[in-house]
Design goal:
CATH superfamily of one domain in chain B: MetI-like
Distance between the termini of chain B: 15 Å
Shape of chain B: globular
Number of helices of chain A: 11
Order of helices and strands of chain B: HHHHHHHHHHHHHHH
Helix content of chain A: 25-40%
Largest sheet of chain B: none
Order of helices and strands of chain A: HEEEHEEHEHHHEHEHEEHHHEE
Structural class of chain B: mainly alpha
CATH architecture of one domain in chain B: Orthogonal Bundle
CATH class of one domain in chain B: Mainly Alpha
Number of strands of chain A: 12
Distance between the termini of chain A: 29 Å
Oligomer: heterodimer
Number of strands of chain B: 0
Largest sheet of chain A: 8 strands, mixed
Chain lengths: ~325, ~325
Amino acid sequence: MTADTARHATAQAQAGQPLLQVRDLRVYYHTPRGAAKAVDGVSFSLEPGERLGLVGESGSGKSTIALSLMRLIKPPGVIEGGEVLLGGEDLLAKSEEEMRQVRLAGVAMVAQGAMNSLNPVKRVREQILDGLADHGQPIAKRAVADTLGALLRSVGLKPEVAGMFPHELSGGMKQRVVTAIAISLRPKVIIADEPTSALDVVVQRQIMDTLLRVQQDLGAAVILIGHDMGLMAQFVTRLGVMYAGKLVELCPVQAIFDEPLMPYSQLLIASLPSLTKKGELRGIPGLPPSLLDRPTGCPFRARCPHAFDRCAVEEPALRELRPGHWAACHLY
Amino acid sequence: MPIGYLVRRVMQFFIVLWGAATLNFFLPRLAPGNPVRDRLLSQASQGGLLQSGVEEMVRAYNAEFGLDKPLWVQYGRYLYHVFQLDFGFSIANYPAKVLPMITAALPWTIGLLVVSSCWAFVIGTLLGALAAWPRAPRFFRYLIGPAMALSAIPYYMLSIVLVYLFAVTWPIFPLSRGYSISRLPGFNLPFILDVLRHAILPGFSIVLAALGFWALGMRGMMVTTRGEDYVTFAEAKGLRDRRIFFSYGLRNAILPQMTAFAISLGTVVSGSVIVEAIFAYPGIGTLLLRAISASDYFLIYGIVFMIVLSIALATLAIDLLYPFLDPRISYRKA
């Protein structure tokens, strides 16, 4: 170990370790035509209380990251390698039973498609209490009503909702119930995978406000996954841009709007409608590469307006190009 | 449960019974021939009685059974009796009445068929659910093949094979009947054990044959259910696998099975004919078989009505229970 890295390590220990550290995470889906590299060497870290956004088009690996942080990747998907450190402990090295305890208590998920995330034949009450009971925190009969009432109130629901079935709730209410379940054990990390995808904008706004409030109450860190840049701008502090299973840019959220570095991020920002400038909406031409046989070099080069020789041979690594602003591009 | 729904549903139950009873009454009367004359003539041909005497006896018996009255009077009296479960006298076993004959046979059928149908449902459903559950032992997936094969074999074939193997080749179990001839029926331990010993082979053949059906249905439903978002979310909640399996998987996948099970319980009474015949079991099936071969109309009416009654009762029960099983179904008018 050189003196330099030793000093770096000490500095990190003094600053306190990040809450969640993902290092070189690789998740492949094994298909008859070969392995689809859905997440290919992604690294990032999360400070306590931080709100990190992950954006990218469909199939870029956002949801796969969410599921692999909870170790819920199902065959043919396999977590091929990497580390997921939560408070210094590697989740990928835990036994299945230890990992089960971490779910909800350590890392909780507000699922994608929360409309169908509640069991239609069980009352809200049972669905909340199930999670508590299986984490060794059964509530005394007398305290159930109080605990549930407080929990439901914290997400803006009336305590009576506990006795209702999911089909008696509106989409927004269901989403709130799912949020209430997710925070019921005061997790350190909340992963919200497109929590508002099926809701109208007014309810979206309410849900995001609720999520923001409970996040601040608990001091939990949030990973918000989605593709709504407007929502991200309002909610997160730092933003990661995913492309073809890789993290191609990671920076404070304002920086992605002010000075996107990676050409993909630039086109993404340019494609957003503007209130002040009139003009035609532009998309990003082309399609992302097949995850099955990925081209050499930069995965974006086929669609990149600035691609040059080096992009075809060498894959750019994620480097800190500005203070706190990381991007994977040969242009800089 | 709203009273209005209950009343409507119970009314529907009685309308079904009335319709069945009416069909039961008119259909045989559309066919030519008089059961009394037929029977007397067949006896006469054996005994050599004179034709003139037969006609008088036909009149006498017609009066006795009320067959000389106009049709609508007969129909009214028939309905009046049927709703008291009074099916009159058995023609073949006169002066035995139909109802006691049925009530004597019913416990045997219910004891054998309802119990073995329930076992088949429970075992088959669990097996199918486990076969579709990724974290269940692989063993259960291997059982689906044999279960599928068994469900393809008619249960009476299975019965014959079982009889051949376990009653003839290795006489472990009795060949037939509900209990040993030498034993006096009574509520005592030796008799009960004897009855159980006699019920094992027919019961086993029913369980084996029906098991595959329930297992396959349940496996299909479970495969659908395990892909639902709420199962994924249950996993994300860090629930124990056992709880996810029972409370979020099986609990939801079993709903369509329940309807099928209620109907199958209703048809148990009629579906038992062949098994009971093979094992000479003293149940409804055997009784029906004897009634048909003896053209014992009143007994046939009685048994058919009991079958209709049991199906109607089973569907009524499942209709009233279903909203408790699936809260999305409400009692409100559709």
